[in-house]
């Protein structure tokens, strides 16, 4: 693995979290880990079951799409990951799964409203669902155009991918990202749980309204704002 040992280990460990957290069955998901200084990312090989993965089976790809390490074919979603790394500065990991509740919202083509504080803690705005890919885009370069669709959706909605680290692709499923591969899986788990809560909310009360803006703001700011007070400060020695 040479210089890519640490990156491949990060990707390997993060991919094992997918079945562990109940985000996918069989091979229905992938995680990548990005090294911005080297301009490369390690990603799960296509169609390989999680129990058969090893750090050595990860595939390292550069931002031009060239394989620079690995003997296996990379995930079929590699081009989507590549586009997102090129489009969203400051992210170091991406997770894509077919988790049931998130996929259900994507198949319905619906954005997820901020119904409660759990959602607000992780994103002070609704989770966007993209439009469906056009027939032309699918024929042109399906996975690349999926990445372009996500990036274009965030640009058109003026959403900051560092503040809102998750999206639903219409008819397809969820993508989440973070500062590193492990955090991207964390956000994928959060996204699935938020989608589940939102679904149950509408089952109980189909007319449920989003959380008032002042409560949304409070929960976001107390975790992420300049005066955030959630959690523990780093211990100084």
Describe this structure in words.
This protein is α+β, with helices and mostly antiparallel strands and 237 residues long. It has a single domain, classed as L-fuculose-1-phosphate Aldolase (3-Layer(aba) Sandwich). Helix content is 42%, strand content 14%. The protein is built from seven helices and seven strands. The protein has a seven-stranded antiparallel beta sheet, sandwiched between helices. Strand 3 and strand 4 form a beta hairpin. Helix 3 crosses helix 6. The longest helix has 24 residues. 40% of the residues are buried. The mean pLDDT is 95.
CATH superfamily: Class II aldolase/adducin N-terminal domain
User: Between the first and last Cα atoms, what is the distance in angstroms?
Assistant: 36 Å
- Can you tell me the CATH topology? L-fuculose-1-phosphate Aldolase
Count the helices. How many? Answer: 7
Sheet/helix structural class: alpha+beta
Spatial order of strands in the largest sheet: 4-3-2-1-5-7-6
Helix content: 40-55%
Mean pLDDT metric: 95
CATH level-two architecture: 3-Layer(aba) Sandwich
- Major sheet description: 7 strands, antiparallel
Indicate how many domains the architecture comprises. 1
Task: Supply the CATH class.
Answer: Alpha Beta
Total strands: the figure is 7
Radius of gyration, taken over Cα atoms and rounded to an integer in Å: 18 Å
* Uncertain stretches of 5 or more adjacent residues: none
* Shape category: globular
Helix and strand succession?
HEEEEHEHHHEEHH
* Range of strand content: 5-15%
Write a compact overview of the structure shown.
This protein is of the alpha+beta class and 237 residues long. Helix content is 42%, strand content 14%.
